[in-house]
Amino acid sequence: MSYNNYLDADAAWNCVCEFNKPTCVIVKHTNPCGVASRDDIIEAYRLAVKADPVSAFGGIVAFNIEVDEALAKDIREFRSPTDGETRMFYEIVVAPKYSKKGLEILRGKSKTLRILEARKNDKGKLSLRQVGGGWLAQDSDDLTPKDIQFNVVSEKAPQESELGDAEFAWLCVKHVKSNAIVIAKNNCMLGMGSGQPNRLESLRIALRKAGDEVKGAALASDAFFPFAWKDAVEEACESGIGVIAEPGGSIRDGDAIDCCNKYGVSLLFTNVRHFRH
């Protein structure tokens, strides 16, 4: 296990632990490139790969339930959706536990595959970061949608399914490096944009990855849309996004609300930002 292996495994595990349903998270360079929740964990795994199969190759896969024989076989044999032939390769698999047979199957997949067992982290811990001459400390970002009251600020209120998509996207974007945008629908991440100094560029990356599936999907932003609101919010609305979840708090909030009303898009304010650096 290398330094980067530990960082990526920790990022994948922290993300997958956010979800109550059986969930698969695939991480590359500490950013989730595929996230999906389903009653059938194999379906969740395949959807997570499908979200970005190129990035998923060589990534870290995390599950929040036991890896049994059936799931282990699918991890070993599943072919990349890009060509239907290339067997998916991963650096690490992390899960709360493994069945005896599942562990045997994974050990036979690759000599270099690291198989990790982890337990859910406790809430309330400090987040530490070393800087020149000292350390920075802050409370961990432990808030869930249950802790946050989404405030509907648009004329159009989201349907129940749209609200669920917004909550899912909001949980995902929490684990994406700022500036972060996540697009999700039906408990599946369709596209994400990360690490761009310009939020509009993160949006465009997420839209490109989501493709035609963006229609009616939820979009979550880890911070408010500042002066780029006209380009970013309008571009999101024109693409077919159904609901947007963002912290709010910008002096241009009124303009963003007007834009969503113009296109009939639901806009939710969380009053809490993520900002992962």
Automatic annotation (TrEMBL):
Keywords: Hydrolase, Multifunctional enzyme, Purine biosynthesis, Transferase. InterPro entries: AICAR_Tfase_dup_dom_sf, Cytidine_deaminase-like, PurH-like. GO terms for molecular function: IMP cyclohydrolase activity; phosphoribosylaminoimidazolecarboxamide formyltransferase activity. GO terms for biological process: 'de novo' IMP biosynthetic process. Its EC number is 2.1.2.3, 3.5.4.10. It comes from the Eukaryota. SUPFAM superfamilies: Cytidine deaminase-like. SMART domains: AICARFT_IMPCHas. One of its GO terms (cellular component) is cytosol. This is Putative bifunctional purine biosynthesis protein purH. It comes from Davidia involucrata.
